[in-house]
Design a protein that fits this description.
The complex is a heterotrimer of chains A (about 300), B (about 350) and C (about 500). Chain A has helices spanning about 5-30, 40-65, 70-85, 90-110, 115-135, 145-155, 160-180, 180-190, 195-200, 205-230, 240-250, 260-280, 285-305; strands at about 155, 160. Chain A has about 300 residues and is mainly alpha-helical. Chain A has a domain at about 45-255. In chain A, strands 1-2 form a two-stranded antiparallel ribbon. In chain A, helix 1 runs antiparallel to helix 13 (about 285-305) and helix 8 packs across helix 10 (about 205-230). Chain B is mainly α. The model of chain B has no long low-confidence stretch (mean pLDDT about 90). Chain C folds into 3 domains: about 5-240, P-loop containing nucleotide triphosphate hydrolases (Rossmann fold); about 245-335 and about 420-500, P-loop containing nucleotide triphosphate hydrolases (Rossmann fold, 3-Layer(aba) Sandwich); about 350-415, no CATH class. In chain C, the strands form 6 sheets. A 6-stranded mixed sheet of chain C has the order 6-9-10-3-11-12, sandwiched between helices. A 6-stranded mixed sheet of chain C has the order 17-20-21-15-22-23, sandwiched between helices. In chain C, strands 2-1-4-5 form a 4-stranded antiparallel sheet, covered by helices on one side. In chain C, helix 4 (about 115-130) packs across helix 5. The model of chain C has no long low-confidence stretch (mean pLDDT about 85). The chains are: A mainly alpha (about 300), B mainly alpha (about 350), C alpha/beta (about 500). Chains in contact: A-B, A-C, B-C.
């Protein structure tokens, strides 16, 4: 077993533990085991797909050693633009918005070399301001288009379409990371940008590419979430940033960049989604949920190993 | 003087920007340069200034504390229970609030130092814990804060003296020159002078700068690395508690507001950067971050006097932040050896 | 002669991740001696120093200081007992002032707080002792030149009142005048019966300074002897454990070579002040001179790293590349073996395989997609070409020895099939055996029609390897030497810019 696999196995094991605890709870209180029923699980994963898509894009940025804090506003903005434009151009317009945001984030980080933490934070504030100013507190047109509704809610072969979208995104990202020069460059830059530059890697386009991927994923998640809620609204993306970071890191990706595998992020997302559903089944109050959430992250990372998080 | 500017370019720039903004603001304000305006502005700035100080310490050693806003919120919720009763009880309450935040900071430090987790991710998680605890304490906003104390600490020195009938109710000759100064500013400056400046001149404080500048060199130089890391997070917790304490005094309630906590954390990072402290560590200081926080607040004050559509406020705040950080980036283009771009 | 040893090691062993760095070493140094520690890289010198100075703890064995057993938990414990080390990677904090740095861990205090005034005074006194009065102690260390930093480092070590002073490559960046200062200083310290452990790769320094020498090899202490008991050749043999014959491959006869690179009047930011040179096809052109005379900048300029380079450059019909990307893909193709392999040449935590292919993605991909068959072939090819000793190509490159790491850097660049190879001190910190392999390979490459611009800080390498040498002084070429004219005297003279032979 490679050291890199350790977090994956622990995270997967922990996911099972959560399932067991949740099932034990429901069996003892209601005598049923909804967590083990495919329909319930699929429904949870359907909700989790929005988080999963955000985390997939964010992972590319984290691999380069940067971070994208503009995910919430990008998600919200894309949803609002999509619903405001409506019709067949709704989804392309939303994705185009994501593309532009990613390009600006990437340019600020890779060309101007402003720390991504602060640049994407500023970007998030600006986008938030734009959406507030544009809608003026109420939206003229915030209803999701039929296609958005279908993507988020319909099923094909009994499986929600949103899961197909998530799977498609996952396949693309996993392929990019494992089998392309772009993917290798991400790892190289995240490990040591100086050496990557001196190896003749196009560091700037690659970093910009990572940010574009992250923003596109956030925009896509916004489209789906708008479809799922049937409309776009202020602050709809707020709940996605921190869980996405947590999912990527719990999946074994080094938060300083350079190492991590996509399968880990996938497991991280599932872990968080299941944790959330078990906590809601237990009707845990928000206060305890936050505490449990925090404790789980700290404890798991501690189990992953002392010193395992260090880089050269 | 020239050397100081050359060695503290970011801070010097922030000072100039702040002075300019402050001057123009008071010129534009119908009641500019008055004590009332100053008191109001000071009240709205103190909490973020404390949180910015809190954020500075971990940033100086190339860390980041994403729990500062949450610890502030937790401290405010604790304060909403304890800042009432007799003078002794209140004094004990203040100490207990500060101890809460400080202990939480120490816990962050222990996790980072002995658990060897990245600060950013460890504090992300402990921040959630702090918010959870705050929510346990105050599921609904509420609480009781001693009215006299609240009034005395959020107004001028004269009001303070008047409230507690000291110095002839503020009329004593020796207090006259200070009578119009807002108490919150004195608290802020006092904490900075009594806590931060001495700390900076200890070996532990110096070690924090050394870690941010070159951790390996700091270790072989025999500096107390672990102690400094613990101290940095503990101090961050203490400053966050100061912010929470003040917030409770100002609003007379405790409110476990998750959104507000997040906003304070993010604004603290912005304030640190605006003040000229490098996110890469080693350069800057808590005083600089206070100036950064004041700049952030001043910008929002402009909205009121210029009658700008309030909805535009976040947009313009964000743009100012982006412009400020990008302005420093012109140097990127004048770099002649591209290797210098990659530290 | 019979003075009791001040420091004594018995049966000290240390392993890193299963690899034995020191193997039950016995070692002793006498009070008031200057004791040289010699050995190839990987011989265990740095581990030995780290143990003595408390940076790492030994796995087994005992250390005695003044006859008393000691066990240092960290560097400050060692310092407290008078064992002070000046490390090869500087221990200065760039963002703090010189005065702060000199009194870093134990500053003068007043009421528990650092007394800045006393600290300044102390810094001035110590700087005066190393004749660095020109350094203002209020300056930040990051604003100092490398040689000044090294002197500050020495002042800092002095300020700790050492009984045992360890100098690890302490003179590598110093000017001739500074080196003399250090010599004098060591003389004074010796008179005060301070013991100095001196690690250097420069034999003439060792000979000038030290009275005893200890040779290490493969983590073992081989022999200790007084200066003059062994000849240089014997010492080298002790270090590598076998005879050195034909250290450098034979050079081909002088011949006319078509030029692949011509530069005229290169200027850049005061580091290059009008450098002109031509590089012929199949030629190894050495670049000599003292450190910091513009050699590194010259190589970076040809690789497209520097902006705003003035002057005329002609290589295969084009001028200077605008970036490393155009440098490696244009015609002729250029490669750079950078100065610091750990931060510039390699991604240490990544695998050997990943590192080998980072410069040549186009070789292993089809329209951006990696072809596993090509990837595997390229990795095997790279490993075989330089005979890199690896367990598995999937191991992290940091598990390799310094020499093998450097081979990975070179193999990585050979994968791009470069026409011009720029080498920035490629043998720095590498064991003698690997050095020879690298010289052999360089000659093979040149014979195969590649052109090499080879900067080395070691004159012997230039003499042994280069067809022609240009010597830089203050950003200009001051001498060009060809064939037999490349001698140590000529190189040293030109480096100091003193006209020996006209």
């Amino acid at each position: 077993m490679k050291a890199e696999d350790k977090p994956l196995i622990i995270a997967a094991g922990f996911t099972l533990v959560i399932l067991l605890i949740g099932t034990g709870y429901t069996l003892s209180t209601q005598g049923t085991a909804p967590l083990l029923q495919p329909t319930y699980l699929l429904q949870q994963l359907q909700i989790g797909s929005f988080l999963g898509i955000c985390a997939a894009g964010l992972m590319l940025v984290i691999l380069t050693g940067h971070i994208d804090l503009s995910i919430p506003a990008t998600l919200t903005g894309a949803a609002m633009i999509g619903t405001a434009i409506g019709g067949p151009w709704a989804i392309p317009a939303a994705l185009a918005f994501g593309l532009v945001v990613g390009l600006i984030n990437g340019a600020g980080t890779a060309v101007l070399r402003v720390p991504s933490m602060i640049f994407t934070l500023g970007m998030d504030t600006v986008l938030r301001g734009v959406t507030v100013a544009q809608t003026g507190g109420f939206a003229p047109q915030d209803q999701a288009t039929p296609l958005m509704l279908a993507l988020a809610k319909d099923r094909f072969l009994g499986i929600p379409l949103a899961l197909y979208v998530w799977a498609a995104v996952s396949i693309v990202i996993a392929f990019l990371l494992a089998r392309t020069a772009f993917g290798r460059s991400l790892y190289a830059i995240g490990t040591r940008e100086r050496a990557a530059y001196l190896s003749g890697i196009r560091t700037r386009p690659v970093i910009i590419g990572a940010f574009v991927a992250s923003s596109l994923c956030a925009a896509l998640a916004g489209v789906l979430l708008a479809g799922y809620s049937a409309k776009a609204y202020q602050g709809m993306g707020n709940a996605y940033l921190l869980p996405a970071i947590a999912a990527v890191v719990l999946g074994g990706t080094n938060v300083l960049g350079g190492s991590g595998r996509y399968i880990g992020t996938l497991i991280g997302v599932i872990l968080i989604v299941l944790l959330n559903s078990v906590l809601s089944i237990m009707q845990m109050p928000e206060a305890l949920r936050q505490i449990i959430y925090g404790v789980v992250i700290v404890v798991m990372l501690l189990i992953y190993g002392r010193g395992a998080r260090e880089t050269g | 003087m020239g050397r100081w500017v050359a060695q503290n370019r970011g801070f010097a720039g922030a000072l100039v920007l702040f002075a300019t903004l402050l001057l123009i603001y008071n010129l534009l304000h119908p009641r500019g340069f008055s004590s009332a305006v100053l008191v109001q502005n000071a009240n709205e700035s103190v909490a973020i200034a404390f949180v910015a100080m809190a954020q500075t310490v971990p940033v100086l050693m190339r860390g980041l504390d994403l729990s500062v806003g949450a610890v502030m919120t937790l401290s405010a919720c604790v304060a909403s229970y304890l800042l009432t009763g007799s003078g002794l009880e209140i004094s004990f309450g203040i100490l207990a609030v500060l101890a809460t935040g400080t202990a939480f900071g120490l816990m962050n430090g222990l996790i980072v130092v002995y658990g060897r987790l990245q600060p950013i991710i460890a504090t992300l998680a402990t921040g959630a814990i702090a918010i959870g605890l705050a929510l346990l304490l105050r599921p609904q906003p509420g609480g009781d804060v001693d009215g006299d104390l609240s009034w005395a600490l959020t107004n001028t020195v004269w009001d303070f003296a008047d409230t507690y009938s000291i110095a002839d109710g503020g009329e004593a000759w020796w207090i006259r020159p200070f009578a119009d100064i807002p108490v919150p500013l004195i608290l802020l400056v006092g904490v900075a002078i009594l806590v931060w400046l001495p700390f900076k001149r200890t070996v532990t404080g110096r070690t924090i700068y050394a870690i941010g500048s070159a951790e390996g060199a700091a270790y072989v130089s025999g500096l107390p690395i672990n102690r400094a890391k613990l101290a940095a997070f503990t101090l961050a917790g203490f400053f966050s508690a100061c912010a929470g304490l003040y917030l409770a005094l100002q609003t007379s309630t405790g409110n476990a507001d998750t959104v507000q906590a997040g906003a304070y954390t993010l604004n603290s990072i912005a304030a640190v950067v605006l003040g000229g402290t490098a996110l890469a560590g080693g350069i800057g200081g808590a005083i600089a971050s206070v100036v950064g926080a004041l700049i952030l607040r001043l910008i929002s004050f402009y909205f009121r006097i210029l009658d700008i559509e309030p909805l535009l406020q976040p947009l313009i705040e964000g743009l100012v932040l982006l412009l400020a950080v990008s302005a420093g980036a012109w140097r990127t283009f004048s770099v002649k050896n591209r290797l210098e771009l990659f530290r | 002669m019979t003075a009791a040893p001040i420091i004594e090691l018995n049966g000290i062993s240390k392993s890193y991740a299963g690899i034995r760095a020191l193997d039950s070493v016995d070692f002793a140094a006498k009070r008031g001696s200057v004791h040289a520690i010699l050995g190839e890289n990987g011989a265990g010198k740095s581990t030995l120093i780290k143990i003595i100075s408390g940076v790492v703890a030994p796995d087994a064995g005992e250390m005695r200081l003044n006859g008393q057993p000691v066990r240092f938990q960290n560097p400050s414990a060692a310092t407290a007992q008078g064992v002070v080390c000046m490390f090869q990677e500087l221990s200065l904090i760039p963002d703090l002032s010189v005065a702060d740095n000199i009194s870093i861990a134990a500053p003068p205090l007043r009421m528990g707080l650092i007394d800045r005034h006393a600290q300044l005074q102390r810094a001035e006194d110590l700087l005066a002792r190393v004749r660095c009065e020109d350094v203002d102690p209020r300056m930040l260390v990051r604003d100092l030149s490398l040689s000044r930093r090294q002197m500050v480092e020495i002042a800092k070590a002095l300020g700790r009142n050492p009984q045992v002073l360890i100098l690890d490559e302490a003179t590598s960046a110093l000017t001739a005048q500074d080196v003399q200062t250090v010599y004098d200083l060591l003389g004074k310290l010796t008179a005060e019966s301070v013991t100095t452990l001196f690690i250097s790769h420069r034999m003439h320094e060792v000979e000038a300074l030290c009275d005893r020498l200890s040779v290490f090899r493969n983590g073992r202490h081989i022999e200790t002897f007084a200066k003059g008991e062994r000849s240089d050749a014997e010492i080298v043999r002790l270090m590598i454990g076998r005879d050195v014959t034909a250290k450098y491959p034979p050079k081909p006869a002088a011949q006319a070579r078509p030029s692949v690179l011509t530069a005229e009047g290169l200027e850049w930011e005061g580091a290059l002040k009008g450098v002109s040179l031509t590089l012929g096809k199949g030629e190894i052109l050495g670049v000599g001179g003292l450190d910091g005379q513009g050699q590194k900048e010259l190589l970076l300029a040809f690789f497209g790293v520097l902006k705003g380079v003035k002057g005329r450059v002609e290589m295969g019909g084009r001028g200077l590349p605008s970036s490393p990307i155009t440098a490696k893909t244009g015609q002729p193709r250029i490669a750079l073996i950078p100065e610091d392999r750990k931060t510039e040449g390699l991604m240490l935590p990544m695998s050997i395989a990943d590192n080998l292919v980072t410069a040549a993605f186009d070789r292993i991909t089809r329209s951006g997609v990696i072809d596993p068959v090509r990837l595997e072939a390229a990795v095997q090819d790279g490993i075989a070409r330089l005979q890199i000793k690896v367990g598995s190509p999937q191991d992290a490159v940091r598990t390799l020895s310094g020499g093998n790491q450097q081979k990975v850097v070179i193999a990585k660049w050979l994968m791009t099939e470069p026409d011009i190879i720029l080498m920035n001190d490629p043998t720095r910190g590498i064991d003698v055996g690997t050095k020879q392999e690298i010289f052999r390979m360089m000659r093979d490459l040149a014979d195969g029609g590649k052109s090499i611009l080879f900067y080395s800080s070691d004159y012997a390498e230039l003499i042994g390897c280069a067809d022609r040498v240009i010597v830089l002084y203050d950003g200009k070429v001051v001498r060009e030497l060809t064939g037999e004219a490349i001698t140590e005297e000529a190189l040293v003279g030109a480096s100091l810019n003193i006209g020996t032979a006209a």
